[in-house]
Design brief:
By secondary structure, the chain is of the alpha/beta class. The chain has two domains: 188 residues, Medium-chain alcohol dehydrogenases, catalytic domain (Quinone Oxidoreductase, Chain A, domain 1, Alpha-Beta Complex); 141 residues, NAD(P)-binding Rossmann-like Domain (Rossmann fold, 3-Layer(aba) Sandwich). It contains ten helices and 16 strands. The strands form three sheets. Strands 3, 5, 6, 7, 8, 15 and 16 form a seven-stranded mixed beta sheet that branches. Strand 10, helix 5 and strand 11 form a beta-alpha-beta unit. Helix 3 packs across helix 9. The chain is globular, with a radius of gyration of 20 Å.
Length: 338
């Protein structure tokens, strides 16, 4: 089968950083689905895993943790899906990724593809949606039934992949008042179109801008960009007994003592945790994706596809990595078909 892999960890400008390869078609066992891949999306985790380092792979390593496709075959213990079902999912970082014609994934972290979306628009959603959902509803404990309606949330990194769906979940599902950060007119408009009530610039003084918008403090803060840079501002603006959640690893110690006087909570969100550790509640991601598909089909949520870069091949995938590393992408980058 066709796939895009790597043998060495190189700068994306090097044509050997991601290469077209031929691999054996895998066979499903246990609760695995074998999925025929129709579309993939690219995330910052792909670029971080591929980042230059002094290491080589004996066999090609395949990246990619966002996919939509059709179930080709099932393992003997599968109960949630059957051959021919259209699905979407993010997969597990501990296994080969989905940048290949066929891919194995545990059914417990897979959802039925939204009926109203094609494969490209569906592939834009899983990883970022799981991340934003878990951060908002599981880590911060916000009600997904609207019981916290009217409370405020600051979303740092509003126009990125996670921010794009995070804004929608916070506004359209949780019924919160959403302040999102964006630094350019086009990214600010994107965030507003998705439901943000207010926009502030993350390159300027965030607490000062919030006060100008009428917010002395906010109930929740979601950091979807640069924890090191933005944690001090988050600690300053969070309400007493509020909560801060970040998805971005830090380069230096996080000054969590800034939260002590407010008895404010600090959370990490890593959407691969359940699959990585085989937690007993892995199936919650199947349930989550199924509920999001329902919300998509009901018109409550919309896809976050920003740009389709064409066919799934090494050249187009290298371009997607380059654009992500540039740090100015709006929404999700998708590739469709081999």
């Amino acid at each position: 089968m066709k796939a895009i892999g790597l043998a060495r960890y190189l700068p994306i400008s090097n044509p050997e950083s991601l290469i077209d390869v031929e691999l054996d078609k895998p066979a499903p066992a246990g609760r695995d689905l074998l999925v025929k891949i129709e579309a993939i999306a690219v995330n910052p985790v792909d670029t971080k895993v591929r980042a230059p380092k002094d290491k080589t792979e004996e066999a090609p390593r395949v990246l990619g943790w966002d996919a939509a496709g059709v179930v080709e075959a099932i393992g003997p213990d599968v109960t949630l899906f059957k051959v021919g079902d259209p699905v979407y999912y993010a997969g597990s970082i501990t296994r080969q990724g989905a940048n290949s014609e066929f891919h194995l994934v545990d059914e417990r972290i897979v959802g039925a593809k939204p009926k109203t979306l094609d494969f490209s628009h569906a592939a834009a959603l899983p990883l970022t949606t799981i991340t934003a959902w878990e951060a908002l509803f599981e880590r911060l404990g916000v009600s997904a039934e609207g019981a916290d309606a009217g409370k405020s949330v600051l979303i740092i990194g509003g126009a990125g992949g996670v921010g794009s769906i995070g804004i929608q979940l916070a506004k359209k599902v949780a019924k919160l008042e959403v302040i999102a950060t964006a630094s350019r007119p086009e990214s600010a408009q994107w965030a507003k179109d998705l439901g943000a009530d207010h926009i502030v610039n993350h390159f300027e003084d965030i607490p000062k801008q919030l006060k100008a918008a009428g917010f002395e403090q906010v109930d929740y803060v979601l950091i979807f960009n640069d924890t090191d840079r933005h944690f001090p501002a988050a600690a300053e603006v969070i309400k007493p007994q509020g909560g801060v959640c970040t998805i971005v690893e830090n380069a230096k110690p996080v000054a969590v003592e800034l939260l002590k006087a407010k008895s404010a909570a600090f959370h990490w969100e890593f959407m691969f945790t359940r699959a990585m550790f085989g937690t007993p509640d892995m199936i919650e991601q199947h349930k989550l994706l199924s509920e999001v598909a329902r919300l998509i089909d009901a018109g409550t949520l919309t896809t976050t596809l920003g740009r389709d870069l064409g066919r799934i091949n090494a050249a187009n995938l290298r371009e997607a990595h380059r654009l992500l590393e540039e740090g100015r992408s709006i929404g999700k980058l998708v590739l469709t078909g081999f």
